[in-house]
Write a structure and sequence with these properties.
heterodimer, A: mainly alpha, two-stranded antiparallel ribbon, about 70% helix, globular, B: mainly alpha
């Protein structure tokens, strides 16, 4: 494996800023140096980064702590999206009583419902299904994969295979501002701000709270933590549930912008995997940086694929392609942190 | 050892397989005899029309043979080497696509195109298996799973968009040599599928029983230790996934010959999941388990496709929610039935015989 190590970068302010300069240049080229298009691309990229972070944070925490790659994480994201969509649009699906509530409040409540459902389902998955399998790692992987299929099929049979575009207008979607002669709905900066707040909150939780200390210690050595008299299993369950709740919230906040479809789960899941591999499996700050890299790369490639000689296939291939490149060239992550 | 004693010993260990082979060889004729239909179909002038019970059951068995080969090859990786792939159906689908493309688009005469197609499948599966293996097998196990998932997902998107192969609808594979055409001489196709099925079964048994197979099992149990003993584990893992890829590609050819159509659904990730499910239900790391899993689930699908049942007030249509049902079976089996049918049976038998065996020798008293 040593031949890969040479490719990893030293983790310093300089390399990180160089990386981002490259990405921004790529975004500039893909938008043909037009500032308006460039602003859209960057805005989309950062928004994607926030959504990816919400999926990848749980993946990374769960992987670091329990050594499980939760293949169902994309399913939670998708479930959150559908639940929120359903809650806001009373004409369809399971929540038919919500019509009386004001739209913006409905959206907020839908987000709460999605997050709670994500947390509860995450709790059930860890407690009821994964716990008996801690001795058999291969089967855990297989099981989370099976859960992702069940989630997808439950969604498909409840809401059907068609993709839904957002119909109801939220207050923030009607507000707009102008940047480089280009109109933007206020919803995008809103998602970015919420994502950034959550990012800071999760990092603060890990850095400063007692639970965070236990989690970080657990990433290092779970057996030692449990020897110190801390109930590691309970921490596992909490973290798993938290990770799934974050993913479901991410789906909920993404849906007014991206719509709900059967494929967003696997797309965001694969892109989130690229994020955590880039950031180094189990490293949390790496996940934050990685989500910006993947988000901006994805948006820029999407912009590039609009041109006829490139073809729109590349937009949907971008996350997979990036994941494959990252796995091949930088399997230990950008900063070569080996675990 | 006396020759007849050797024959007796062979019969004792392999007799059941020989009997099963004989039954499968005779199966179309037996069904034809029982139901009064001909395994050759009904003759209309120069052509044979494929109708009747015997011909119908043959198509189900051909499907089972193709799937069994796919599942057995998956089991070679997952069950015997401990390598988990989420993209194995990609080989199966590429097998069908390659044979179909060569036959439909190259302009060669059907007979030649068929053999060129098979050669192409062999080469492409082997090379693809080697490349994927070389690129990722030296990484941690979970990376291999992710990598195969990403590649399979990409190949699926590619083929569902590629207009050359009909995009999401796929294309009809009709330029098939007459002697193997499922619509004219299905019995020949049946024997071809049976030959591939038996060949795969024997090949995997011999491979796993060989010294190389012993190393594969050692890798499954503990790769670090196998390395420490001095084995170049990468080579054996490569052997395993390349062999599995070739077998899956060949199975894909049989599937395409029977369906006479190639579409992106055969290389979707959900098809790999079916193979994984069949492996686990039958018994991971057993020889007959994958066959039982594949035939059991295929038969269940055939028999229950049009059935529906009611829970409370909701009617569940089995055919429509087959994926969900199989997903739930999947989770339940992994949790409560991890050794599968054959694995559990072996365990029970071992426990029974261990209890029954008379303890000999003076120390017993």
């Amino acid at each position: 494996m040593s031949r890969f190590t040479s490719l990893s970068l030293p983790r310093s302010a300089l390399t990180i800023s160089l990386l981002f300069v490259t990405l921004i240049l790529y975004a500039l080229v893909s938008s043909e140096l037009r500032m308006g298009t460039f602003a859209i691309t960057m805005m989309t990229g950062i928004l994607r980064a926030m959504l990816l972070f919400l999926v990848a944070a749980g993946l990374s925490l769960i992987f670091g702590l329990m050594d499980i790659l939760n293949f169902a994480q994309g399913g939670y994201f998708m479930l959150g999206a559908y639940l929120t969509y359903d809650f806001v649009h009373p004409a369809m699906g399971i929540f038919r009583f919500t019509g009386a509530i004001e739209v913006n409040l409905r959206f907020a409540l839908g987000l709460v419902v999605a997050t709670l459902v994500g947390a509860v389902l995450g709790y059930i998955l860890e407690r009821g299904l994964l716990r008996p399998l801690y001795k058999r790692a291969l089967f855990q992987l297989v099981l989370t994969f099976g859960i992702s299929i069940v989630l997808l099929e439950v969604i498909r049979s409840t809401w059907g295979p068609a993709a839904y575009g957002w119909v109801e207008r939220l207050y923030l979607q009607d507000q707009s501002f102008t940047l480089f002669d280009q109109e933007f709905s206020a919803y995008r900066p809103f998602v970015i701000v919420v994502g950034a707040l959550l990012m800071v909150a999760v990092i603060a939780l890990l850095r400063f709270s007692r639970l965070g200390i236990v989690i970080r210690a657990g990433v290092q050595d779970p057996e030692m933590v449990s020897a110190l008299g801390i109930n590691v299993r309970a921490v596992f369950t909490t973290v798993f549930s938290l990770g799934c709740a974050l993913a479901a919230f991410g789906g909920g906040i993404a849906v007014p912008y991206a719509g709900a479809s059967n494929s967003i789960g696997s797309t965001y899941f694969l892109a989130a995997i690229a994020v955590i591999v880039l950031g180094g499996l189990g490293s949390f700050e790496g996940t934050a940086i990685g989500s910006f890299v993947v988000g901006i790369f994805w948006a820029a490639t999407e912009q590039l694929s609009v041109r006829p000689e490139v073809g729109t296939v590349w937009a949907s291939l971008a996350p997979m392609l990036l994941l494959i490149i990252v796995l091949l060239l930088l399997p230990k992550g950008l900063f070569g942190e080996d675990r | 050892m006396l020759p007849y004693r050797r024959a007796l010993l062979w019969l004792r260990s392999e007799g059941i397989f020989a009997l099963a082979t004989l039954a499968l060889v005779l199966f179309p004729h037996i069904v034809g005899w029982v139901t009064g239909s001909s395994p050759f179909g009904v003759q209309r002038g120069q052509r044979f029309i494929m109708s009747g019970e015997s011909v119908y059951w043959m198509s189900i068995l051909i499907d089972i043979f193709a799937l069994s080969v796919l599942v057995m090859s998956y089991n070679l990786m997952f069950g015997f080497t401990g390598v988990i792939s989420f993209g194995h159906a990609m080989f199966f689908g590429l097998g069908g696509y390659l044979v179909g493309i060569v036959a439909q688009k190259s302009g060669l005469p059907p007979d030649l195109a068929f053999f060129v197609g098979i050669a192409a499948v062999l080469v492409v599966s082997a090379v693809l298996g080697l490349i994927i293996g070389l690129l990722t097998l030296r990484l941690r196990g979970v990376y291999f799973a992710i990598f195969t998932l990403a590649v399979a997902e990409m190949v699926w998107i590619f083929f569902s968009r590629w207009q050359f192969t009909g995009g999401e609808d796929g294309f009809a594979y009709s330029a098939i040599p007459v002697w193997i055409d499922a619509a004219q001489s299905r019995l020949n196709l049946y024997y071809l599928a049976l030959a591939l099925f038996l060949g795969t079964f024997i090949f995997i048994r011999r491979l796993v029983g060989s010294p190389a197979g012993a190393v594969m099992k050692a890798i499954r149990e503990n790769e670090m230790r196998a390395q420490a003993i001095g084995f170049d584990t990468l080579r054996f893992k490569l052997l395993s996934i390349t062999a599995a890829g070739i077998l899956a590609g060949l199975a894909g050819i049989i599937h395409a010959l029977l369906a006479k159509k190639v579409g992106p659904e055969v290389l979707a990730v959900s098809h790999t999941v079916d193979a994984l499910l069949m492996t686990i239900i039958g018994g991971v790391g057993t020889f007959t388990g994958p066959i039982l899993g594949a035939s059991g689930l295929t038969l269940a699908d055939v028999l229950l496709r049009d059935a529906s049942f009611t829970i409370g007030s909701t009617v569940i249509d089995v055919g429509e929610s087959w994926l969900m049902i199989s997903g739930i079976i999947f989770v339940v089996v992994v949790l409560v039935f991890p050794f599968g049918v054959v694995g559990t049976w072996t365990r029970i038998r071992l426990r029974l015989t261990a209890g029954r065996q008379p303890v000999s020798g003076p120390s017993a008293h």
